[in-house]
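Page 42, continued from yesterday. The earlier attempt failed because a stray header line got pasted into the input along with the sequence. Redoing it now with the clean sequence only.
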Amino acid sequence: MSMELGFDSWKEDNKSILESLAGRRNLLLFSGGKDSSIALHLILKAGIEFGFDFEVHAAMFPVHRYVDEEIKRLESYWNKRSIKISWHDVGVTDDAIKNDPDPCIACRAIRKKMLKTGLTTDMVGEWDRFTIIASYSLWDIVSYSIEHLLNDIYSSDKDILADDKKNRFFETAQRFYPLLKMNEGYSVFRPLIKLNDSDIRKMLDQEGIPTLSVPCKFSNLRPKRLLENYYKTLGLSFDYDQLLEFAKKSLNLPDLSSYASINKAEYLQNIF
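This time it went through. Structure tokens are written below.
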């Protein structure tokens, strides 16, 4: 069944994970976009109910979206809800990705590098009590499935190396799982992967939650954004369980165990 959006149904669907967050150091990655804003809203309500704390960190990239007025506007809203956002300068300008054929992937690489650099043992403390909360949605993993079908299974483009395709799919496939428990003790929680974009937007409107209003000037070059526009035009919604079953049977989705043993430096830099 597809998941009806609402805090109560979301809470029940993620109850065992939410219960496990008490006593851990939980870090939510925030961008100011619609997905991370809904994730913050849900985690905030869940934290009160399940008795866990969390931190919110935002990498200000691409730089042109994070003007002072926007940051102040978002901070004003979240501060009223007792949330402090830690904003981080990634140390590079938008020139670093402007000529990339897929600036979205280049942008993520910069964010991953900062994540790996920032998550030192001194900062994290006990890795076996640490959780990263990331905001991938159901539409994201639908798009990853289509990307794999077009780019790997059906493509005849010999210029794309087989190893590159394999690595890309291995990277995106782990985002299909709500929770990864890594052998080094830390966990990765994705609270939105069963939610359609239409549900996320509906909750934003209902709750009056602000998001960044400066559009990304690279969005038209983003394959995922083009696919999302297609889903919206056709009024599509998806079912997580059906997608997961398809991915396992038809796309050879790697098992959770394929990721658990990866060294955290490698995972945070190249896969997360």
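Notes: The radius of gyration is 18 Å.
Reminder to self: strip header lines before submitting.
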